[in-house]
Design a protein that fits this description.
Layout: E1 2-7, H1 17-31, E2 34-39, H2 45-55, E3 60-66, H3 68-78, E4 84-90, H4 96-99, E5 119-127, E6 130-132, E7 135-139, H5 140-147, H6 157-171, E8 176-182, E9 185-197, E10 220-225, H7 229-240, E11 252-256, E12 259-272, E13 275-294
Parallel strand pairs: 1-2, 1-3, 3-4
Antiparallel strand pairs: 5-6, 5-13, 7-9, 7-12, 8-9, 8-12, 9-10, 10-11, 12-13
Length: 308
Amino acid sequence: MKHVFIINPKAGKKDATAAIYEMADRLREKHGLAVTCMLTDRPGGATDMARRLAESGEEVRLYAVGGDGTIHEVAEGIAGFPNAAMTCIPSGTGNDFLKNFGDKAPLFADAENSFDGDVFPLDLIDCNGRQCLTIACNGVDAQVAESVHEYGAMFSGRGSYLASIVVNVLLKSLSHRWELTIDGEKQEGDYAVVTMCNGRYYGGGSTPVPEARMDDGILHTVVIRKVTKAQFAKLFGPYSDGKYRELPKDLIQVVNAREVTIRSKGEIVSCVDGECFRSHEVTMKLSDKKVNFFGPKGCDPNATAIGI
């Protein structure tokens, strides 16, 4: 079995490359593993590397070293390959994905805790062919994610997210005219947010659907209709804290859906695991048990999920 560290040297505020090479050396020397390191040099590079390794047919364990974007890319590369499994070593700014593992999350920082961990499957969200591990969002929250990097030098991960919210709420439109199709049922109207959740965290720690589980074959879609800036200001705190049931049902609803499509004459800003793109039509659907994951013994991707 191969063990391959796919390292994004640009993730976070400090290049972790040297520390990861030392970690790889320790695994090789202590456990006699076949370990190599690969560096990404462009957006999408981790996906290409991971896919080539998976396509070899050889059993391989991949370590995504970076933030949520790097984890997303590696997952996309190995989705559907039974011979490949992945884990992550956080070196990004937000690292929202690992929050799903609760108090086990810090153990992922050292591959010594993960290299021999059990493999378990996770669901994915297919968003226009892109494979998403945690949350695929469209509308205001995607617009915030698209511009959040502008404030990364001035604030922390959560701080830059909040700064982006302020700018987007004050200066940009909060709603868009969309045709929305949920499991075959069409509706048209003005919407601020249409977000599909497999995991629970994004935007530096917001938890829109705290009961979401990453391996149960169920996706939760949050639909927020047209809101004023004053209404959004009141909605944001409870929405971010997962208290959607306490919010007005004429403004927000959460539905279980296997497939959701958004169509628009204007551009739709979408974001999957922190990676943004624009289009005029977005389709999100379940990719059931599509990626193999491993981690520290006893880790649970649903550790922080609440009961329904």
